[in-house]
Amino acid sequence: MGMKNVEKIIAELQGYDPQALRADAVNDFLAQLVQPLGHAPGDTEALPLLQAHHRVLAADIVSPVSVPPHDNSAMDGYAFDGAQLQPGQALTLQPVGATAFAGKAWQGSVVPGQCVKIMTGAIMPTGLDTVVPQELTQANADGSITLPAGVLQRGDNRRLMGEDLMQGQPALRAGQRLTPAALGLAASLGLPTVTVYRRLKVAYFSTGDEILSLGDAPREGAVYDSNRYTVFGLLQRLGCEVIDMGVVKDDPTLLEAAFRHAAAQADAVITSGGVSVGEADHTKAMMKQLAADDPSGHSGVVFWRIAMRPGRPMAVGRIPRPGASGHTVLFGLPGNPVAVMVTFLAFVRPALLRMMGCQGCAPVLLKARSTEALRKKPGRTEYQRGTVSTAPDGSLQVRTTGNQGSGVLSSMVAANGLIVLHHGQGNVAVGDEVDVMVFDGVI
């Protein structure tokens, strides 16, 4: 399916209203706006496993071997032919002299009435299919062991060949992020390298004449740029290659130069500030000019007021890459630090993961019971900072961090998740279940 231009994507959105756009419509739009990596030379690379943590697989990994490669013992104990077990009857067996150890096949043979002492991970001897743990047996004076009635069934404590992974079957799928467990799985197959998508290149700059960089002298009415550091951390946690462009003043010429510079080297550019009502006019005109430079017609930027709290203003779209084919995706976020984080988590992060080639990486919402009443009007999505904990009965509970003002940056530090109150949802009573987007591993 070819790339759709911005106007066509908008035309297909249900109930599109740029002045009161639903939060779920934003994600629907972005899912069509962004293109996953993999369509251009150099979008993939082969990496040693130890360098591939959190990268996204660009191709299925088909298991070259079965894991485990043989039936083996899951316990230290005695291996025997489980056909000898009879319901309601004890079974006495005589161990043969040798022991089956992990790492090499046991070469002996066993007749009915005999068993083999076996260690965890050892290959099951031919003809034997059941292992009794040593602690379940009774030792007899003649050296035999007895299994009490009813403690075991045929096949117990045996790991079957290929029960983890079968040779020729996909072990890991393209689009999976390589977690520590996935790295171990790839290593268990004897694979020294994996094919992954390259790192996504994301440029960032803050805008505003009132923004100070760290090291600048304080001045009345000015604030230090916290967004630069928050967004840097969010992008670094995602595994992006971050292009830090600092602060750009509210000057159309400087802004245009910054956007062109960002588009020339990045897959996406994120800005904070300059998109709210009264600020966006010169930005709109400049974006229109940038889009006009694209002969493909696929560029374009839209400015929204989203039906959400916090974080209403946002600009998204594509801008052309100067002197090259292709586009850079733009995410113009509000200037407010809390709103920047909320809009990043709700919209930008899922879109960037899609661009990275990640499949099934949407945030998981947990259910937790609210310990307080929450006021909420239907008609917008609210993201309240909350702290999830375990209630005395073992269930999850959540409380807000207190003052939900969009300027209270410390509340994002105190919170461990966002309470997501959906568009059509109303007031929440004490004890009602709410959805929570947890921060662990995200910010």
Q: Which CATH first-tier class of the largest domain would you pick?
A: Alpha Beta
Straight-line N-to-C gap: 34 Å
- Report the CATH topology name of the largest domain: Molybdenum Cofactor Biosythetic Enzyme, Chain A
Helix content: 10-25%
Strand order of the largest sheet: 7-4-6-5-9-8
Biggest sheet character: 6 strands, mixed
Domain tally: 4
Q: CATH H-level name of the largest domain... which superfamily?
A: MoaB/Mog-like domain
Structural class: alpha/beta
Write the CATH architecture name of the largest domain: 3-Layer(aba) Sandwich
Broad shape = elongated
Computed CA radius of gyration, to the nearest angstrom: 30 Å
Please report the total strand number as a whole number: 26
Mean pLDDT, to the nearest integer, reads: 91
Q: Which runs of at least 5 residues are low in confidence (pLDDT < 50)?
A: none
Strand content: 25-35%
| Total of helices | 8
